[in-house]
Design a protein that fits this description.
alpha+beta, five-stranded mixed barrel, 35% strand
Length: 104
């Protein structure tokens, strides 16, 4: 069984610069300990070693059933957020909204 957390790549797209700079992001992740999805404020890095004290973060692709990377990224969760008060934005939702507006 995998350890750590899982995130869909759509939450990371468009945030490459913030990730490189070590800035905090709002993400929806799944905890592999209890399989619960939660919204968190966290720092992520493209490798586990690049973020001291990080836990493994597995990135899934758009098929939602294939692990995108064979090696995990790293995640440091700063705090768990109330999903009713904070929205984790997905890149593909923004893209779908723009395409829908063009079709009108």
């Amino acid at each position: 069984m995998k350890e750590g957390y899982e995130v869909y790549e759509a939450y990371l797209k468009g945030h490459e610069e913030e990730i490189e700079q070590g800035k905090e992001l709002i993400l929806e992740v799944k905890d592999y300990d209890n399989f619960v999805r939660m919204v968190v404020k966290a720092k992520v890095a493209q490798s586990l070693d690049a973020l001291p004290g990080a836990k493994p973060l597995w990135v899934r692709d758009y098929a939602e059933d294939i692990v995108k990377h064979t090696e995990p990224w790293g995640i440091q969760i700063i705090e768990e957020l109330d999903e009713d008060e904070v929205e984790a934005k997905r890149f593909d939702e923004d893209l779908a909204g723009k395409k829908g507006a063009q079709n009108r």
